[in-house]
Give the backbone structure.
Amino acid sequence: MAVYFSIFLVILTGITGVVWLADKLYLAPKRKLTLVDAQAQCQETLPDDVITKLSEPSVVVDTSVQIFPVIAFVLILRSFLWEPFQIPSGSMMPTLLDGDFILVNKFNYGLRDPVVRNKFFEVGLPERGDVVVFKYPRDPKIDYIKRVIGLPGDRIIYRNKSIYIKPACLESDAKCPEFEQVVQNFLKETDTPDGSYGLSRHTSIMPNKTHDILIDNQILPRTQHYYQQAGTQRDEFVVPQGHYYVMGDNRDHSLDARFWGFVPEENLVGEAIAIWMSFDFDRDENSLLPKWVPTNVRFSRLGWIN
C-alpha cells in the first residue's frame, strides 16, 4: 500500500509541478498581456468582473499552483527524511504495541528514490539493536518492523531461547571473536495480550543497545520450522553480505528471520526512532462505534524507541 501511495504522490507532484512551472513561465505572462491588450482596445476602464476573468487562471491551473508546494514538501519529507507508520501487531512487544504510531527516520540508512528505491546517497548502515522498518522479502508490498540482531558476516545461534552472536571476522584480523551470548536479565512474569499467563519479561543487553523482550515459556522451540541455510545447523544462521538478521522482541510470537531468512539491504526503509501517538482499540462487538475508533490515548507511551 505504501508503494502505491509513493507512486501516486510522485505522479501528482510531477503533474502539478509541470502546471506550476507552465503558469510561472507562460500562462501567467500570457494572461497579463491579454489584459493589457483588452484595456488598450477599450477607451474606458474595464469592469472588475472582466479584469478578474482575464487575469485569474482556470480552476485546474489555480489548484495545481496552490497545492504543488505542499505536495512537493510532503514528498520530500516522506521520501527522504521521516515517514509515519502504524504498528499492526504485537510482534515487537513490549517495545511497540498494537496501536502505536511511530516515526521512521529514512535518512539514517541512505537516500533512495521513492519509486524504484535505488540508493543514490550513502549515509550509514544499521547497527545491532536498531529497530528497523523494511520491505518483507517474500512480499515487498508489505512493510515489516523488527530489531536487527545480526550484521553482514555474523554467525547467529538462537538456542534454548537465547541468542549467541559471533561477529564477522575479516581475513586481516589477527584473532577472530568467539560466540558470545546476549545477556537476558529476568525482570518479571507478565500476562499475555489475551489475558492468559506465561510470558516472562527480560532485559536484553545488546552490544550497543539495551531493550526489553518477552519470552513465552509455554511455547517450545520451533526449530523444525526455521529457515534452512545450507551448511548450518537448524538453529544457526550465517548472515550473507549485504543482508541483515532480524527478530521481534516478542520472541515466541514473531514471524521473523528465523522462519524466512535475511533482509536484503535494499529492502530497508529506515530506523524506527519514536512513538508520536498511541491508541487503545478495546471496543467490543456491542459498541455503536466502529472498531477503528480509538477508546483511549496512551500518552505514557509517547517518546523515543530503545
